[in-house]
């Protein structure tokens, strides 16, 4: 689950509008990177690593185009998972260049940015463009590894049966360990008892995991990534390893 939140003066725009933003001249201490060049760099890297996969992008500008925020969402052909890559760039020295990736990403025009796989940042100083190229490659590679691990974990969850009562017990443990709040635990119970989606009717760990993630949608948007990370670790403490129910 990823969230692209624009509520601090930013405005969602199209790619052509972003490409038309003028780039201020560099100074002795701040090297500006055109938003359009950074966008093209990430698009090219995604096309190389995920050929023939659909990629959607959300864009926002703030402070008369001086700040730009991105969320790329990549459909990798799996019904229950998508990859996300978030980026931000500034011409006004207000924040550093940053990118994040994973199955869960958060990007906001209040400058928050994070990813379940990796988050990288770089100041707009000398050689920033060269480092940006490396950063984009690292972000794309990390997102691919994260997705492969997640897909393996979800496939294993589907193979592990879980009785209705055992599911209730795990929800109680989630509440006791602070993975769920009382309100979220109530949502998880409802989703486990009567799933909102037909594909989660089966009594297995995967369906229980979905009940938790549905519950995780409740709460402060800015903490969503932390909630999903906590839920995933509760079910899979290590990549490819699933709890024994």
| Count of DSSP strands | 9
Which structural class do you get from the secondary structure elements?
alpha+beta
| 3D shape | elongated
Number of H- or I-type helical stretches: 7
Strand order of the largest sheet: 2-3-4-5-6-9
Low-confidence stretches: none
Largest sheet: 6 strands, antiparallel
| Mean pLDDT value | 89
Strand fraction band? Answer: 15-25%
Give the terminus-to-terminus CA distance: 24 Å
Total domain units: 2
Range of helix content: 40-55%
Element string (H = helix, E = strand): EEHHEEEEEEEHHHHH
Radius of gyration: 20 Å
Briefly, what is this?
The chain has 245 residues and is α+β, with helices and mostly antiparallel strands. The chain contains 7 helices and 9 strands; from the N terminus they run ββααβββββββααααα. It is elongated, with a radius of gyration of 20 Å.
